[in-house]
Every structure is written in C-alpha cells, then in structure tokens.
Amino acid sequence: MASFQVKLHATPISPPYFLISLSPYLLRSFLPTQKLAMCDNFTFFERNFSVTMRLHLRAAILALTLFIISCGEKKTSDSEAPVDSLAINYTILKTLPHYTDAFTEGLTIHNNKIYESTGQNGKSWVAEVDPGSGNHDKKIILSDQYFGEGMTILNNKLYYLTWQTKIGFIYDAKTFKQIGEFKYNNEGWGLTHNDKELIMSAGTDKIYFLDSTNYSIA
Q1: Three-class DSSP category at 171
Q2: Does the first or last residue of the chain, that is N or C, have fewer Cβ atoms within 10 Å of its Cβ?
C-alpha cells in the first residue's frame, strides 16, 4: 500500500514538525467510482487527483495543523502557573504550644529566650515564655486602662508600647521591674530596634526612629 507524507514547519513555540500520513485508500471518496480500482497505483492516483481536490486536501491539512498548534498552545498556557520570585522554601521543624486567648502584639528572641507581649484592655501582658510548655516564667500585667502593643529589648531594657494612650513602659529586662516610661504623639503599634535606636510604627505608612536615651524622634 502506497502512502505519501506532508511536512509542515511551525513557529518556534510549537513542535518543529507535524508529520501527517495520508493513504490513498482513505481518499477514495474524492475519486469517480470507475477509478477506485486503480487507487492502489500511487502514480496514477497522483496524476489523476484533480487540482480542486488537492486544494481541498491542502486546506484540510492546514486546518488540522492549526488546530493542533492552538490546542498545544492553550494547554501550555493553562498549565503554566505564575511564579512568585520572592517565594522561599521552608520546612516546619516543630510546633510549639501557645495560649489560645493571647492577643499577640509583639514577639522577640533575646539571649535565646522568647518574649511575647499581648493586647486587649484588661488582658495585656508581656512575659518570658517557655517554648516547651508555653507557660510564662516571668510576667508583667498592665492595668485595665492600657491596650498593650509591640515590645523589644535594647541595652538590657524591655520596652512595651500601648495603643492609644500614647505611653510606653520601660522595664529591667532581667527583673521585670518598671524603671521608667516615655510618651509619644501617635498611636503605638510595632516596636523593634537597630542596636542604637528604637524603631516604632503607628499603623500608617511611616516608621519612627526614637533616641534610646531621651525617646525623642531621631
């Protein structure tokens, strides 16, 4: 049985070649009945195949090729998910216990110890937390009028912000005894430091650098 092949070059994003094999037996319906017996002769088939039928065949091949290309491109685009260039891989090493009623506002690690501060009026505290049990080894509880916020430790002092009362408390980081306080003109939110200055956020697009000796804006 004779057959012929047609090769079509596609664009670089598609497979480089589409090879379509067509047998004369599959095209007998294009020929007059009296010529069916001679379809096994490929030379005769090629010579007697009308120009119109050849154009129809080429159009059919082109349509099939375009269909295959479009399907391939759609499948590729549908399967490609956007990649986040900032995403990093991580592995959870351990899950630690934590009080479910703690409204956590601040969290820091200092000298291999975990310190946590919480919010809510009447429920605000800052404590040194045992990571194994979640219990508090040392703890400071604020008066009910204060809504606690972020905290940090710098120069052996523990700093603890409040939300809308615009006052921060200073404690000895070892004994948890209060040794001072400072005021600010905005709300208190997050708190950290750069080893020299306190860095405070106020719930806006701004951060404030505070001098750690007089607590003025640096």
Answers
A1: strand
A2: N
- Residue 5 — very low, low, confident or very high, per pLDDT cuts 50/70/90? very low
Report which of 22, 19, 21, 17 is spatially closest to residue 49, judged by C-alpha positions: 22
Per-residue pLDDT at 46:
52
DSSP β-bridge partners for residue 193: 198
For 21, the token pair is: 């094999």
From the centroid of its chain, how far is CA 52?
Answer: 57
Residues in contact with 217: Cβ distance below 8 Å, sequence separation at least 6, in sequence order:
208, 209, 210, 211
Q: Which of 79, 106, 109 is CA-nearest to residue 189?
A: 106
Residue type, 10: A
Look up the pTM and report it: 0.60
Helix (H, G, I), strand (E, B) or coil at 191: strand
User: Smallest Cα–Cα separation from 198: which of 214, 180, 183, 210?
Assistant: 210
